[in-house]
Design goal:
CATH superfamily: FAD/NAD(P)-binding domain
Largest sheet: 9 strands, mixed
CATH class: Alpha Beta
Helix content: 25-40%
Number of helices: 11
Distance between the termini: 50 Å
Oligomer: single chain
Radius of gyration: 22 Å
Shape: globular
Number of strands: 20
Length: about 400
């Protein structure tokens, strides 16, 4: 078989699916293919779990989902973050960020990945303009004079399709990125993230916490109630790998005690901890994000440390920027895969990417240093957030996804 598509998206995860939805909204006549290595079916909305993993969406990301007609499906499952408290273990000062300073409905939202996935997949499965190729893997990709040829292995058969543009969005370990010879610069981290959901003895009041400790940052993000567990948080606990492995094995009471010794009781007393999982932490950037007929997107392009919760939000802005560039080209009848066009996308989005990478690296370095001088600098920073209104407003705008130039 030999079929033609305007755009082929490799990877049906949150970034690839979000791009497909964005392209469909702006260009409903566009013919898209979404290739996914795993069987693709809409998850059962009734299936949920106390231990469900979650994603933090900035306010700006919620507005992007609104523009593509998805927020009405996501919002019922989203828990608003109205305030954020930032503190440093061993010091009394804490900075407080509040949505009211910029008159926002929320600073951001926490959404279970399953609920977000349901909204995305239901949207794209309703469209006649998208062909979902799953399970299928790309075995070959090569540019031609008129576009690109993509060879697929699907259901024990080979299939070849042509397209103007291939978007590689198959994750940080992207097989297609490696296949076409795009290398990444990887910064290994000695830490890992211990991820779990916890319940406390009092309402979270839509408050999120970020606390920097000697062992690493601890984040608590407010979650919707689950059955009798009314007051839930998503916990992201950064630790040295050996300490993370140890805390994965201890009993719940010991784990809760260790967590309280670092975090304190500002969110209340922890009553329950769910399944604990280890997430290896790296920062990685593809050395190239564009080639003739090809764009690298999402974690395949840049994998960020979660300390500032910017990874998916940045990728969503990348997807929206790419959509805008492709929309103008489509209106003019231009080649969607031309290198000159894709250069425009990179010119528009490069600064956002660089600044988010720099900010994430700066926060991670500053708040993991144990020497006295960096710790005093941290305290001055927290003081400035609390007592300098202009600084606080800009910082809130950045974290809410309204600025990319902090």
């Amino acid at each position: 078989m030999h079929d033609h598509f305007d755009v082929v998206i490799v990877g049906a995860g949150m970034v690839g699916a979000s791009l497909a939805c964005s392209l469909l909204t702006c260009m409903p006549a566009l013919k898209l293919a979404v290739v996914e290595a795993f069987p693709l079916k809409t998850p059962d909305a009734a299936l949920s779990s106390y231990d469900a993993r979650s994603t933090a969406l900035s306010w700006g990301s919620s507005r992007l989902f609104e523009k593509i007609g998805l927020w009405s499906s996501i919002a019922p499952h989203a828990t608003a973050i109205n305030k954020i408290q930032v503190s440093d273990q061993g010091f009394p000062i804490a900075a407080r960020l509040d949505r009211d300073r910029l008159n926002l409905a929320a600073l951001g939202y926490v959404v279970e990945n399953r609920k977000l996935g349901i909204a995305l997949l239901e949207y794209i499965t309703r469209s006649d303009q998208i062909e979902l190729l799953a399970p299928a893997t790309v075995t070959d990709f090569r540019p031609t004079r008129s576009g690109s040829l993509v060879r697929l292995h699907q259901e024990n058969a080979e299939r070849e399709i042509s397209t103007q543009l291939v978007v590689v969005a198959d994750g940080s370990e992207s097989g297609l990125r490696q296949k076409i010879g795009i290398h990444t610069d990887v910064e290994e981290c000695k830490h890992a993230a211990l991820i779990a959901n916890v319940s406390v003895d009092r309402p979270h009041s839509n408050m999120a916490f970020e606390r920097f400790t000697e062992s690493g940052p601890i984040a608590l993000l407010p979650l919707a109630a689950y059955a009798e567990d009314l007051h839930r948080y998503a916990l992201v606990f950064h630790l040295h790998r050996t300490e993370c492995d140890r805390l994965l094995k201890v009993g719940d009471e010991e784990f809760i005690s260790q967590l309280h010794s670092r975090f304190g009781y500002r969110a209340g007393r922890i009553l329950k901890v769910g399944e604990r999982n280890k997430h290896e932490l790296i920062q990685a950037r593809a050395r190239e994000q564009i080639r003739q007929g090809c764009v690298i997107l999402g974690n395949a392009a840049h994998t960020l440390h979660p300390v500032a919760a910017q990874g998916f939000n940045l990728s969503l802005r990348d997807a929206r920027c790419l959509t805008s560039v492709l929309f103008r080209a489509h209106e003019n009848g231009d080649d969607l895969g031309s290198l000159a066009l894709l250069d425009q996308y990179m010119d528009l989005q490069r600064q956002d990417q660089v600044r988010v990478h720099q900010f994430t690296h700066f926060v991670l370095e500053l708040f993991t240093m144990k020497q006295l001088v960096p710790r005093l600098v941290r305290q001055l920073g927290l003081l400035s957030l609390d007592f300098l209104p202009a600084v606080k407003s800009e910082f809130i705008a950045f974290t809410a996804g309204l600025r990319s130039d902090l």
